[in-house]
Amino acid sequence: MSESQPVELDPGTPEIDLHQVKTRSISGVLALTSRTFLVQVISFIATFFLTVFLSPQDYGTFFLVSAVVNFLTYFSDIGLAAALIQKKDKLTRQDLTTTFTIQQFLVLLLLFLLFANTGFIRSQYQLSSAAIYLMWALGLSLFLSSLKTIPSILLERDLQFNKLVIPQILENLVFNLSAVYFAWKGWGINTFTFAVLARGFTGLIAIYIISPWKPGLGLNRHSLKKLLNFGLPYQANTFLAVIKDDGMTLFLGKLIGQTGLGYIGWASRWANMPLRFFMDNITKVAFPAYARVQHDPQVLKKGIEKTIFYLALVSFPAFVGMAVLALPLVNTIPRYQKWLPALIPLYLYLFNAAWATISTPLTNALNAIGKIKITFKLMIMWTVLTWALMPYLAVKLGFVGVSLAAAIIATSSIIVMYVIYRLVKVNFIQSLLAPTLASFFMGSALLVITPYLTSLPRIIVTIFAGAFIYFVSLYLLQGKQLFLDLKNLIKPNR
Protein backbone atom coordinates (compact mmCIF):
# COMPACT_ATOMS: atom_id res chain seq x y z
CA MET A 1 0.00 0.00 0.00
CA SER A 2 1.39 3.36 -0.96
CA GLU A 3 1.66 6.18 1.53
CA SER A 4 -1.13 8.18 -0.11
CA GLN A 5 -3.50 5.29 -0.70
CA PRO A 6 -6.73 5.52 1.35
CA VAL A 7 -6.96 3.13 4.28
CA GLU A 8 -10.08 1.02 3.76
CA LEU A 9 -11.63 0.88 7.21
CA ASP A 10 -14.58 -1.15 5.98
CA PRO A 11 -13.35 -3.55 3.28
CA GLY A 12 -15.77 -3.80 0.40
CA THR A 13 -17.77 -0.75 1.51
CA PRO A 14 -16.27 2.52 0.23
CA GLU A 15 -18.50 4.71 2.39
CA ILE A 16 -20.67 4.08 5.43
CA ASP A 17 -24.20 5.10 4.47
CA LEU A 18 -26.79 6.69 6.74
CA HIS A 19 -28.42 3.41 7.71
CA GLN A 20 -25.04 1.90 8.61
CA VAL A 21 -24.22 4.94 10.71
CA LYS A 22 -27.49 4.53 12.59
CA THR A 23 -27.29 0.77 13.09
CA ARG A 24 -23.59 0.77 13.96
CA SER A 25 -24.08 3.69 16.34
CA ILE A 26 -26.88 1.93 18.18
CA SER A 27 -25.07 -1.41 18.22
CA GLY A 28 -21.96 0.44 19.37
CA VAL A 29 -23.83 2.02 22.28
CA LEU A 30 -25.36 -1.33 23.19
CA ALA A 31 -21.98 -3.05 22.93
CA LEU A 32 -20.24 -0.42 25.05
CA THR A 33 -23.03 -0.42 27.61
CA SER A 34 -23.81 -4.14 27.84
CA ARG A 35 -20.29 -5.49 27.56
CA THR A 36 -18.90 -2.95 30.00
CA PHE A 37 -21.75 -3.38 32.45
CA LEU A 38 -19.90 -6.13 34.32
CA VAL A 39 -16.75 -4.01 34.34
CA GLN A 40 -18.61 -1.00 35.68
CA VAL A 41 -20.20 -3.10 38.39
CA ILE A 42 -16.74 -4.35 39.34
CA SER A 43 -15.47 -0.75 39.25
CA PHE A 44 -18.37 0.28 41.47
CA ILE A 45 -17.60 -2.48 43.96
CA ALA A 46 -13.86 -1.81 43.70
CA THR A 47 -14.35 1.88 44.51
CA PHE A 48 -16.30 0.88 47.60
CA PHE A 49 -13.59 -1.49 48.84
CA LEU A 50 -10.79 0.94 48.01
CA THR A 51 -12.46 3.65 50.06
CA VAL A 52 -12.79 1.13 52.90
CA PHE A 53 -9.19 -0.10 52.83
CA LEU A 54 -7.51 3.23 51.99
CA SER A 55 -7.49 6.42 54.02
CA PRO A 56 -8.79 9.76 52.67
CA GLN A 57 -5.15 10.91 52.51
CA ASP A 58 -4.13 7.93 50.31
CA TYR A 59 -7.13 8.57 48.08
CA GLY A 60 -6.28 12.26 47.89
CA THR A 61 -2.66 11.47 47.02
CA PHE A 62 -3.81 9.30 44.11
CA PHE A 63 -5.97 12.14 42.77
CA LEU A 64 -3.13 14.63 43.19
CA VAL A 65 -0.48 12.52 41.45
CA SER A 66 -2.94 11.55 38.72
CA ALA A 67 -3.57 15.25 38.10
CA VAL A 68 0.18 15.83 37.58
CA VAL A 69 0.38 13.17 34.87
CA ASN A 70 -3.01 14.06 33.40
CA PHE A 71 -1.72 17.59 33.02
CA LEU A 72 1.08 16.24 30.83
CA THR A 73 -1.23 13.84 28.98
CA TYR A 74 -3.07 16.70 27.31
CA PHE A 75 0.18 17.81 25.71
CA SER A 76 0.83 14.35 24.26
CA ASP A 77 -1.49 14.99 21.34
CA ILE A 78 -2.14 18.15 19.34
CA GLY A 79 -5.61 17.08 18.34
CA LEU A 80 -4.51 14.82 15.49
CA ALA A 81 -6.32 11.76 16.85
CA ALA A 82 -9.64 13.61 16.97
CA ALA A 83 -8.91 15.05 13.52
CA LEU A 84 -8.49 11.55 12.10
CA ILE A 85 -11.92 10.56 13.47
CA GLN A 86 -13.61 13.76 12.30
CA LYS A 87 -12.02 13.79 8.83
CA LYS A 88 -14.64 13.59 6.05
CA ASP A 89 -12.32 11.92 3.51
CA LYS A 90 -10.80 8.47 3.81
CA LEU A 91 -7.65 8.07 5.83
CA THR A 92 -4.28 7.44 4.19
CA ARG A 93 -1.16 5.74 5.48
CA GLN A 94 0.43 9.19 5.55
CA ASP A 95 -2.26 10.44 7.92
CA LEU A 96 -1.60 7.57 10.30
CA THR A 97 2.21 7.65 10.30
CA THR A 98 2.27 11.44 10.64
CA THR A 99 -0.03 11.28 13.66
CA PHE A 100 1.91 8.39 15.22
CA THR A 101 5.30 10.07 14.74
CA ILE A 102 4.30 13.40 16.24
CA GLN A 103 2.55 11.77 19.16
CA GLN A 104 5.52 9.59 20.08
CA PHE A 105 7.86 12.57 19.93
CA LEU A 106 5.60 14.56 22.24
CA VAL A 107 5.11 11.70 24.69
CA LEU A 108 8.83 11.01 25.03
CA LEU A 109 9.51 14.72 25.52
CA LEU A 110 6.87 14.91 28.25
CA LEU A 111 8.24 11.84 30.01
CA PHE A 112 11.69 13.42 30.02
CA LEU A 113 10.24 16.57 31.60
CA LEU A 114 8.34 14.50 34.17
CA PHE A 115 11.40 12.58 35.33
CA ALA A 116 13.64 15.66 35.21
CA ASN A 117 11.27 17.61 37.46
CA THR A 118 10.60 14.87 39.98
CA GLY A 119 12.49 16.68 42.74
CA PHE A 120 10.55 19.91 42.22
CA ILE A 121 7.19 18.11 42.23
CA ARG A 122 8.14 16.17 45.36
CA SER A 123 9.06 19.34 47.28
CA GLN A 124 6.00 21.29 46.14
CA TYR A 125 3.49 18.71 47.39
CA GLN A 126 5.56 16.90 50.05
CA LEU A 127 5.11 13.60 48.23
CA SER A 128 6.39 10.35 49.69
CA SER A 129 8.63 7.95 47.78
CA ALA A 130 5.58 5.72 47.19
CA ALA A 131 3.74 8.65 45.60
CA ILE A 132 6.73 9.34 43.34
CA TYR A 133 6.78 5.71 42.18
CA LEU A 134 3.08 6.04 41.38
CA MET A 135 3.78 9.17 39.34
CA TRP A 136 6.47 7.35 37.35
CA ALA A 137 4.11 4.40 36.77
CA LEU A 138 1.43 6.77 35.47
CA GLY A 139 4.05 8.32 33.19
CA LEU A 140 4.93 4.93 31.75
CA SER A 141 1.24 4.19 31.26
CA LEU A 142 1.02 7.40 29.21
CA PHE A 143 3.62 5.99 26.82
CA LEU A 144 1.80 2.64 26.61
CA SER A 145 -1.47 4.46 25.93
CA SER A 146 0.09 6.47 23.09
CA LEU A 147 1.00 3.22 21.32
CA LYS A 148 -2.70 2.27 21.29
CA THR A 149 -3.88 5.45 19.56
CA ILE A 150 -3.86 4.41 15.88
CA PRO A 151 -5.42 0.94 16.33
CA SER A 152 -8.14 2.55 18.47
CA ILE A 153 -8.81 5.27 15.88
CA LEU A 154 -9.22 2.72 13.10
CA LEU A 155 -11.91 0.94 15.10
CA GLU A 156 -13.59 4.09 16.36
CA ARG A 157 -13.79 5.83 12.99
CA ASP A 158 -15.41 2.74 11.50
CA LEU A 159 -17.85 2.62 14.47
CA GLN A 160 -16.58 -0.86 15.38
CA PHE A 161 -17.14 -0.37 19.10
CA ASN A 162 -18.04 -4.02 19.63
CA LYS A 163 -14.32 -4.70 19.09
CA LEU A 164 -12.95 -1.54 20.70
CA VAL A 165 -14.69 -2.36 23.96
CA ILE A 166 -12.75 -5.61 24.50
CA PRO A 167 -9.39 -4.02 25.45
CA GLN A 168 -11.24 -1.52 27.64
CA ILE A 169 -12.98 -4.35 29.47
CA LEU A 170 -9.74 -6.24 30.00
CA GLU A 171 -7.70 -3.29 31.25
CA ASN A 172 -10.44 -2.12 33.59
CA LEU A 173 -10.87 -5.60 35.00
CA VAL A 174 -7.14 -5.91 35.58
CA PHE A 175 -6.89 -2.47 37.17
CA ASN A 176 -9.83 -2.84 39.56
CA LEU A 177 -9.16 -6.41 40.63
CA SER A 178 -5.46 -5.83 41.24
CA ALA A 179 -6.13 -2.52 43.03
CA VAL A 180 -8.56 -4.12 45.48
CA TYR A 181 -6.21 -7.03 46.09
CA PHE A 182 -3.21 -4.83 46.90
CA ALA A 183 -5.33 -2.46 49.00
CA TRP A 184 -6.66 -5.43 50.96
CA LYS A 185 -3.07 -6.53 51.54
CA GLY A 186 -2.33 -3.12 53.03
CA TRP A 187 -0.05 -1.74 50.32
CA GLY A 188 -1.42 1.80 50.66
CA ILE A 189 -0.60 4.12 47.79
CA ASN A 190 1.51 1.37 46.14
CA THR A 191 -1.84 -0.26 45.37
CA PHE A 192 -2.37 2.13 42.48
CA THR A 193 1.22 1.85 41.20
CA PHE A 194 0.98 -1.86 40.40
CA ALA A 195 -2.63 -1.61 39.21
CA VAL A 196 -1.75 1.17 36.74
CA LEU A 197 1.14 -0.81 35.23
CA ALA A 198 -0.92 -3.98 34.92
CA ARG A 199 -3.68 -2.04 33.17
CA GLY A 200 -1.28 -0.39 30.71
CA PHE A 201 0.37 -3.56 29.46
CA THR A 202 -2.92 -5.47 29.28
CA GLY A 203 -4.61 -2.83 27.14
CA LEU A 204 -1.65 -2.49 24.77
CA ILE A 205 -1.41 -6.20 24.05
CA ALA A 206 -5.17 -6.57 23.60
CA ILE A 207 -5.65 -3.68 21.14
CA TYR A 208 -2.90 -4.91 18.79
CA ILE A 209 -4.40 -8.40 18.76
CA ILE A 210 -7.85 -7.02 17.89
CA SER A 211 -6.80 -4.20 15.54
CA PRO A 212 -3.37 -5.01 14.08
CA TRP A 213 -1.49 -2.02 12.71
CA LYS A 214 2.14 -1.89 11.64
CA PRO A 215 3.62 1.24 13.30
CA GLY A 216 5.57 3.53 11.03
CA LEU A 217 7.46 6.79 11.34
CA GLY A 218 7.27 9.66 8.91
CA LEU A 219 5.96 13.18 8.38
CA ASN A 220 3.90 14.45 5.49
CA ARG A 221 3.32 18.19 5.32
CA HIS A 222 0.09 17.97 3.36
CA SER A 223 -1.48 15.49 5.77
CA LEU A 224 -0.24 17.42 8.77
CA LYS A 225 -1.65 20.71 7.51
CA LYS A 226 -5.11 19.26 6.85
CA LEU A 227 -5.25 17.48 10.21
CA LEU A 228 -4.07 20.54 12.13
CA ASN A 229 -6.90 22.64 10.72
CA PHE A 230 -9.20 20.74 13.08
CA GLY A 231 -6.63 19.34 15.50
CA LEU A 232 -5.13 22.55 16.85
CA PRO A 233 -8.45 24.22 17.81
CA TYR A 234 -9.59 20.89 19.26
CA GLN A 235 -6.42 20.60 21.31
CA ALA A 236 -6.77 24.20 22.45
CA ASN A 237 -10.10 23.17 23.97
CA THR A 238 -8.42 20.19 25.57
CA PHE A 239 -5.65 22.40 26.95
CA LEU A 240 -8.21 24.69 28.56
CA ALA A 241 -9.95 21.62 30.00
CA VAL A 242 -6.76 20.46 31.68
CA ILE A 243 -6.10 23.95 33.06
CA LYS A 244 -9.67 24.04 34.32
CA ASP A 245 -9.73 20.56 35.87
CA ASP A 246 -6.34 19.00 36.57
CA GLY A 247 -4.60 22.34 36.92
CA MET A 248 -7.19 23.34 39.51
CA THR A 249 -6.73 20.01 41.32
CA LEU A 250 -3.01 20.72 41.67
CA PHE A 251 -3.76 24.22 42.96
CA LEU A 252 -6.39 22.96 45.40
CA GLY A 253 -3.89 20.48 46.78
CA LYS A 254 -2.09 23.48 48.25
CA LEU A 255 -5.28 25.14 49.55
CA ILE A 256 -7.29 22.32 51.12
CA GLY A 257 -4.62 19.63 51.60
CA GLN A 258 -4.62 16.00 50.56
CA THR A 259 -7.36 15.00 53.01
CA GLY A 260 -9.69 17.71 51.71
CA LEU A 261 -8.79 16.62 48.20
CA GLY A 262 -9.67 13.08 49.22
CA TYR A 263 -13.17 14.18 50.26
CA ILE A 264 -13.61 16.01 46.97
CA GLY A 265 -12.28 13.02 45.02
CA TRP A 266 -14.65 10.65 46.85
CA ALA A 267 -17.67 12.89 46.23
CA SER A 268 -16.93 13.59 42.58
CA ARG A 269 -16.11 9.95 41.83
CA TRP A 270 -19.40 8.66 43.21
CA ALA A 271 -21.42 11.51 41.69
CA ASN A 272 -19.93 10.88 38.27
CA MET A 273 -20.36 7.11 38.47
CA PRO A 274 -23.67 7.14 36.52
CA LEU A 275 -21.96 9.19 33.82
CA ARG A 276 -19.21 6.58 33.59
CA PHE A 277 -21.89 3.92 33.29
CA PHE A 278 -23.85 5.61 30.54
CA MET A 279 -22.61 8.94 29.16
CA ASP A 280 -19.07 7.86 28.31
CA ASN A 281 -20.38 4.99 26.21
CA ILE A 282 -22.96 7.07 24.36
CA THR A 283 -20.78 10.13 23.69
CA LYS A 284 -17.90 7.96 22.49
CA VAL A 285 -20.16 6.63 19.75
CA ALA A 286 -21.91 9.97 19.17
CA PHE A 287 -18.79 11.90 18.11
CA PRO A 288 -17.97 9.83 14.97
CA ALA A 289 -21.69 9.29 14.31
CA TYR A 290 -22.46 13.03 14.38
CA ALA A 291 -19.45 13.64 12.15
CA ARG A 292 -20.82 11.19 9.57
CA VAL A 293 -24.27 12.89 9.42
CA GLN A 294 -23.14 16.51 9.76
CA HIS A 295 -24.39 17.20 6.23
CA ASP A 296 -28.02 16.38 7.21
CA PRO A 297 -29.39 18.87 9.85
CA GLN A 298 -32.64 16.94 10.46
CA VAL A 299 -30.88 13.65 11.10
CA LEU A 300 -28.36 15.45 13.32
CA LYS A 301 -31.19 17.13 15.27
CA LYS A 302 -32.95 13.81 15.91
CA GLY A 303 -29.67 12.21 16.90
CA ILE A 304 -28.91 14.89 19.51
CA GLU A 305 -32.45 14.77 20.92
CA LYS A 306 -32.36 11.00 21.30
CA THR A 307 -28.90 11.12 22.86
CA ILE A 308 -30.04 13.59 25.52
CA PHE A 309 -33.27 11.66 26.14
CA TYR A 310 -31.56 8.32 26.68
CA LEU A 311 -28.85 9.86 28.86
CA ALA A 312 -31.43 11.61 31.04
CA LEU A 313 -33.55 8.45 31.11
CA VAL A 314 -30.84 6.42 32.82
CA SER A 315 -28.78 9.10 34.62
CA PHE A 316 -31.35 11.37 36.30
CA PRO A 317 -32.92 8.65 38.50
CA ALA A 318 -29.44 7.48 39.48
CA PHE A 319 -28.50 10.99 40.61
CA VAL A 320 -31.68 11.41 42.63
CA GLY A 321 -31.40 7.95 44.16
CA MET A 322 -27.79 8.54 45.21
CA ALA A 323 -28.70 11.89 46.78
CA VAL A 324 -31.51 10.38 48.85
CA LEU A 325 -29.75 7.17 49.90
CA ALA A 326 -26.22 8.50 50.49
CA LEU A 327 -26.69 9.32 54.19
CA PRO A 328 -28.37 6.01 55.13
CA LEU A 329 -25.66 4.10 53.25
CA VAL A 330 -22.76 5.92 54.93
CA ASN A 331 -24.32 5.42 58.36
CA THR A 332 -25.05 1.75 57.71
CA ILE A 333 -21.83 0.51 56.11
CA PRO A 334 -19.08 -0.33 58.63
CA ARG A 335 -15.92 1.83 58.49
CA TYR A 336 -17.65 4.25 56.11
CA GLN A 337 -18.59 6.98 58.56
CA LYS A 338 -15.21 8.60 57.84
CA TRP A 339 -16.78 9.92 54.62
CA LEU A 340 -19.62 11.80 56.36
CA PRO A 341 -17.87 15.19 55.81
CA ALA A 342 -17.99 14.52 52.06
CA LEU A 343 -21.78 14.21 51.83
CA ILE A 344 -22.50 17.88 51.14
CA PRO A 345 -19.89 17.90 48.33
CA LEU A 346 -21.56 14.72 47.02
CA TYR A 347 -24.94 16.44 46.74
CA LEU A 348 -23.39 19.42 44.96
CA TYR A 349 -21.42 17.22 42.54
CA LEU A 350 -24.60 15.27 41.74
CA PHE A 351 -26.18 18.57 40.71
CA ASN A 352 -23.10 19.25 38.59
CA ALA A 353 -23.30 15.80 37.00
CA ALA A 354 -26.95 16.33 36.03
CA TRP A 355 -25.98 19.42 34.02
CA ALA A 356 -23.03 17.54 32.50
CA THR A 357 -25.48 14.93 31.23
CA ILE A 358 -26.85 17.66 28.96
CA SER A 359 -23.83 19.85 28.17
CA THR A 360 -21.31 17.09 27.35
CA PRO A 361 -23.18 15.57 24.36
CA LEU A 362 -23.92 19.09 23.11
CA THR A 363 -20.27 20.18 23.06
CA ASN A 364 -19.50 16.78 21.55
CA ALA A 365 -21.94 17.57 18.74
CA LEU A 366 -20.40 21.00 18.18
CA ASN A 367 -16.96 19.44 17.76
CA ALA A 368 -18.28 16.73 15.44
CA ILE A 369 -19.84 19.23 13.03
CA GLY A 370 -16.68 21.36 12.97
CA LYS A 371 -17.86 24.20 15.24
CA ILE A 372 -14.65 23.93 17.20
CA LYS A 373 -14.30 27.69 17.67
CA ILE A 374 -17.59 27.84 19.52
CA THR A 375 -16.54 25.13 21.95
CA PHE A 376 -13.25 26.96 22.41
CA LYS A 377 -15.13 30.07 23.53
CA LEU A 378 -17.29 27.99 25.85
CA MET A 379 -14.20 26.38 27.34
CA ILE A 380 -12.66 29.80 27.95
CA MET A 381 -15.84 30.76 29.84
CA TRP A 382 -15.74 27.62 32.01
CA THR A 383 -12.01 27.99 32.69
CA VAL A 384 -12.40 31.61 33.80
CA LEU A 385 -15.36 30.73 36.03
CA THR A 386 -13.47 27.82 37.58
CA TRP A 387 -10.38 29.84 38.43
CA ALA A 388 -12.45 32.79 39.64
CA LEU A 389 -14.80 30.86 41.94
CA MET A 390 -13.04 27.71 43.18
CA PRO A 391 -9.97 29.25 44.86
CA TYR A 392 -12.11 32.00 46.46
CA LEU A 393 -14.72 29.59 47.85
CA ALA A 394 -12.02 27.08 48.83
CA VAL A 395 -10.39 29.72 51.04
CA LYS A 396 -13.78 30.73 52.49
CA LEU A 397 -15.41 27.30 52.94
CA GLY A 398 -12.67 24.72 52.47
CA PHE A 399 -13.42 21.60 50.43
CA VAL A 400 -17.17 22.31 50.63
CA GLY A 401 -16.53 25.59 48.83
CA VAL A 402 -14.87 23.71 45.97
CA SER A 403 -17.98 21.61 45.36
CA LEU A 404 -20.24 24.66 45.72
CA ALA A 405 -18.23 26.41 43.01
CA ALA A 406 -18.60 23.36 40.74
CA ALA A 407 -22.38 23.43 41.21
CA ILE A 408 -22.60 27.16 40.43
CA ILE A 409 -20.47 26.79 37.30
CA ALA A 410 -22.59 23.87 36.11
CA THR A 411 -25.61 26.14 35.61
CA SER A 412 -23.75 27.95 32.82
CA SER A 413 -24.49 24.88 30.68
CA ILE A 414 -27.71 26.61 29.73
CA ILE A 415 -25.58 28.72 27.38
CA VAL A 416 -24.57 25.56 25.47
CA MET A 417 -28.23 24.65 25.15
CA TYR A 418 -28.96 28.07 23.67
CA VAL A 419 -26.09 27.76 21.16
CA ILE A 420 -27.21 24.31 19.99
CA TYR A 421 -30.81 25.49 19.71
CA ARG A 422 -29.70 28.34 17.46
CA LEU A 423 -27.83 25.92 15.20
CA VAL A 424 -30.00 22.80 15.13
CA LYS A 425 -33.33 23.72 16.84
CA VAL A 426 -33.10 20.85 19.34
CA ASN A 427 -36.30 20.36 21.39
CA PHE A 428 -34.92 20.13 24.93
CA ILE A 429 -38.30 20.08 26.67
CA GLN A 430 -39.37 17.01 24.72
CA SER A 431 -36.10 15.23 25.54
CA LEU A 432 -35.87 16.12 29.25
CA LEU A 433 -39.39 16.59 30.63
CA ALA A 434 -40.40 12.96 31.22
CA PRO A 435 -37.11 11.74 32.80
CA THR A 436 -36.97 14.84 35.02
CA LEU A 437 -40.54 14.53 36.32
CA ALA A 438 -40.29 10.75 36.82
CA SER A 439 -37.04 11.20 38.79
CA PHE A 440 -38.73 13.87 40.93
CA PHE A 441 -41.65 11.56 41.75
CA MET A 442 -39.26 8.73 42.60
CA GLY A 443 -37.10 10.95 44.84
CA SER A 444 -40.15 12.31 46.69
CA ALA A 445 -41.34 8.77 47.43
CA LEU A 446 -37.90 7.68 48.64
CA LEU A 447 -37.58 10.69 50.97
CA VAL A 448 -40.69 9.55 52.82
CA ILE A 449 -39.18 6.20 53.76
CA THR A 450 -35.55 7.22 54.42
CA PRO A 451 -36.06 7.44 58.23
CA TYR A 452 -36.74 3.70 58.23
CA LEU A 453 -33.59 2.74 56.30
CA THR A 454 -31.55 1.42 59.21
CA SER A 455 -30.08 -1.69 57.60
CA LEU A 456 -28.43 -2.66 54.34
CA PRO A 457 -31.18 -5.14 53.28
CA ARG A 458 -33.79 -2.40 53.68
CA ILE A 459 -31.72 -0.03 51.55
CA ILE A 460 -31.36 -2.66 48.81
CA VAL A 461 -35.12 -3.28 48.77
CA THR A 462 -35.67 0.49 48.61
CA ILE A 463 -33.41 0.76 45.54
CA PHE A 464 -35.57 -1.75 43.66
CA ALA A 465 -38.73 0.00 44.87
CA GLY A 466 -37.35 3.32 43.62
CA ALA A 467 -36.63 1.82 40.20
CA PHE A 468 -40.20 0.49 40.03
CA ILE A 469 -41.68 3.87 40.97
CA TYR A 470 -39.51 5.58 38.36
CA PHE A 471 -40.53 3.37 35.45
CA VAL A 472 -44.21 3.47 36.43
CA SER A 473 -44.02 7.27 36.52
CA LEU A 474 -42.22 7.29 33.20
CA TYR A 475 -44.91 5.11 31.63
CA LEU A 476 -47.69 7.33 32.97
CA LEU A 477 -45.94 10.36 31.48
CA GLN A 478 -45.04 8.84 28.09
CA GLY A 479 -47.36 5.91 27.58
CA LYS A 480 -46.68 3.73 24.53
CA GLN A 481 -44.08 6.20 23.23
CA LEU A 482 -41.67 4.90 25.87
CA PHE A 483 -41.85 1.37 24.46
CA LEU A 484 -41.52 2.67 20.90
CA ASP A 485 -38.35 4.54 21.86
CA LEU A 486 -36.90 1.46 23.54
CA LYS A 487 -37.88 -0.70 20.56
CA ASN A 488 -36.16 1.67 18.13
CA LEU A 489 -33.08 1.65 20.35
CA ILE A 490 -32.86 -2.13 20.30
CA LYS A 491 -33.96 -2.64 16.68
CA PRO A 492 -33.59 0.53 14.58
CA ASN A 493 -35.80 1.03 11.56
CA ARG A 494 -34.26 1.46 8.15
TrEMBL record:
Keyword Transmembrane helix assigned: yes
Subcellular location per UniProt equals: Cell membrane
Question: How does the record say this protein sits in the membrane?
Answer: Multi-pass membrane protein
Q: Which UniProt keywords apply?
A: Cell membrane, Membrane, Transmembrane, Transmembrane helix
Q: Where are the transmembrane segments?
A: 37-56, 62-85, 105-121, 127-144, 164-184, 190-211, 308-330, 342-362, 374-393, 399-420, 432-453, 459-477
Keyword match DNA damage: no
Q: Which Pfam families does the record associate with it?
A: Polysacc_synt_3
The protein's matches in InterPro entries, at most eight in alphabetical order, are given as: Poly_Biosynth_Transport (IPR050833)
Query: How is this protein annotated for GO cellular component?
Result: plasma membrane
* Highest taxon, organism lineage: Bacteria
Principal location listed in the UniProt entry: membrane
Q: Which family does it belong to?
A: Belongs to the polysaccharide synthase family.
- Which named protein is this? Polysaccharide biosynthesis protein
Query: Which species is this record about?
Result: Candidatus Chazhemtobacterium aquaticus
